[in-house]
Amino acid sequence: MIDANPQTDPVDPHVSLRMRCRAMGLPSWRCDGGGVIVADPLEGGVLGLWLRSPVITSLVEPCVRRWLAESPPAPVQMLPGVWAIPVPQQLRRRLVGWTVVVALGPAAIESDFFARACAAVQLDPHAAHRALAPLARHDDASVARTTAMIGCMAEDAQKISDHELDITNFTVQLTESFETIGVLYRIGRSMGELEHPARFVQQVCDNVHGALAYRWVGVYLADPEGLSEPMTLAGTPPLPADQLRPLLEGLAAVDDAPVRRILPQLGPILPDDGGQTLVQRIQRPGRAAGVLVAGNKGGPDPQVSSYDTQLVEASAGYLGAFLENVGLMAQQRALFMGTLEALTAAIDAKDRYTCGHSQRVALLASGLALALGQTPEQAERARIAGLVHDVGKIGVPEAVLTKPGRLSDLEFDQIKRHPEIGHRILRDIPMLADVLPGVLHHHEHWNGRGYPHGLEAESIPRIARMLTLADTFDAMSSTRSYRAAMPRDKVLTEIIRCAGVQFDPELARAFVTLDFSAYDEMFTRHAASAPAIAA
To answer: Do both 157 and 201 map to the same domain?
Structure first.
């Protein structure tokens, strides 16, 4: 994480000026705007002790008071042979302090005042005289020249300081811009993951938290499309999630609030622990979708910066666009699934005895996928495969499908074509590419004696082996025109008996352990509606 808004102190040109003056044998003090000394001379040894004598320092403040009334301030001879040269320090055109430069002449080290200053700090006058003698070389004319020279030095030091500050600020801006581009690039690159909205929202929180100096970042969605939870967090929130959630929910619920808010604290139950909280509304076309919250600003500057607001606003914009795309995709998926279910229901309704068959196979296939440890996404694909596994029966004559009693060899050959017919019907639909193997091979047998291609064992796609179990279970559990439904215990016994012959043994063992209560409820509903459909 970078410090997106570092508090870079302005480079103090007077520090550089004092170092130069020291090299030239010109001691100096730093004073505040009223003349109070805030920094003693840089010199050490005997010279430093003499300059720090209260007899000397007591003369500095009156000089500053005099300069406050002058425009421009001029050098002051504090004592014979002791001149104070003023260098005002300004910040944004406001006087904030003084550098008081001292020039010494020969008279300074010959007067009674010199001896009193030595006595005040218990200095040997002869030792002090030897230390100060090389510096005591100024007169009125040299002080005038020195004042002009110091003025030029101060101006140069200020320009250098300004340039260094400009470079520092430009570097910070470049760093911020680079970090912003990086964050938005990572977020934008993930926007195509419409199948995983929770993952995308978490990535937004993680990236914003990583780029900004906030203790935590959270998203609360009023309408969490495809998310199991409306709140997503990154960092270290000040409260447990169950206590934080009502606060974020309240922020999202304020319809007339500004799009962006800066709060001194998150809520009344939280103390003001320093650092502000930034709240940005997430917009979808025509409505608010939630809030993106960056909480408890840290770092050197506890105030929300323009960099913070720009990055959070852009991230909220990505979230709004992503959620809109997720919503549109959900609508398309619902329409697509509704079409599939209507199609399969219409095929099943050709025969009152197969009413709801595809939906029940879909339920069983999904349950088996979960029992085998597959992900919810994989289980959903198994469910879709179950829905469409018999679509090919649309190409089988209705007289054959609904014929009571045993089928002739020719009629059975017609039935056996339905997996390939279904595969041809569905193969041009990209969303069904992964379920096509189940459609084509759900009548293959483990021992290789199934159809249409006589595949055996693990050469049969796993999704097809799963559908074989679900399809056969429902067929045996249903009353057909040529026989009555089989009892549950007999159906399960038959599945175990045919394991390794018709069914994958491993899948068969897992299948018979399923909870069939949801299947039985669905079966009852379908049985009740079958007569009306058949009519």
So the answer is: no
Rg of the chain over Cα atoms, rounded to whole angstroms, equals: 43
Q: pLDDT digit string (tens) for 376-393?
A: 989 999 999 999 999 888
Count of the separate structural domains present in the chain: 3
Q: Quickly list H helices, 190-233.
A: 197-211
H or E element at residue 411? helix 409-416
Clarify whether residues 419 and 524 are in a common domain: yes
Cis preceding-peptide flag for 72 (omega within 30 of 0): yes
Is residue 209, in this structure, part of any structural domain at all? yes
Bridge-based pairing state of the strands 28-32 and 37-39: antiparallel
Q: Reduce the DSSP state of residue 380 to 3 states and report it.
A: helix
Establish whether the linkage from the previous residue to 452 is cis, with ω within 30° of 0.
Answer: yes
Number of H helices, E strands in the chain: 20, 10
| Site of tokens 């007067």 | 111
Q: Among residues 479, 266, 467, which one has the least CA distance to residue 367?
A: 467
Contacts 24+ apart (CB under 8 A), 260-264: 260/309, 260/313, 262/304
**Six-digit token pair at 385?**
């495969």
What confidence category does residue 535 fall into, taking pLDDT thresholds of 50, 70 and 90?
very low
Is the pTM for the entire model greater than 0.70? no
Of 69, 71, 72, 141, the C-alpha closest to 105 is: 141
The domain of 156 spans 13-165
